[in-house]
Amino acid sequence: LAARRIRVFHMHQREASWRFRDPAGLVLGQLVTPLRRVGVYVPGGKAFYPSTVLMTAVPALVAGVPEVAVACPPTAL
């Protein structure tokens, strides 16, 4: 449920590419493209926060990032 709600929220934030031709005939605009890869850090320690994964990885996936790497501190075995 949380992942779905986060995804729906961030879908409303997506930007679209646009362009126009000005009076001088120049083409101006903005090209929006996702990064190829992002890394997210999830704190560890005495408390684990799955919400950190959701709040960082889900927006990246909504933006179209194909690869998300998650890093967290090691835990004792």
Question: Secondary-structure map with pairings?
Answer:
Elements: H1 2-11, E1 18-21, E2 27-30, E3 37-41, H2 50-62, E4 67-71
Parallel strand pairs: 3-4
Antiparallel strand pairs: 1-2
What can be said about this structure in brief?
By secondary structure, the chain is an alpha+beta fold. It contains two helices and four strands; from the N terminus they run αβββαβ. The chain has helices at 2-11, 50-62, and strands at residues 18-21, 27-30, 37-41, 67-71.
Question: How does this model look, in words?
Answer:
- By secondary structure, this protein is of the alpha+beta class.
- It is built from 2 helices and 4 strands, in the order H-E-E-E-H-E.
- It has helices spanning 2-11, 50-62; strands at residues 18-21, 27-30, 37-41, 67-71.
- A two-stranded antiparallel ribbon has the order 1-2. It has a two-stranded parallel sheet with strand order 3-4.
- Helix 1 (2-11) runs parallel beside helix 2 (50-62).
- The two termini are 31 Å apart.
- The model has no long low-confidence stretch (mean pLDDT 92).
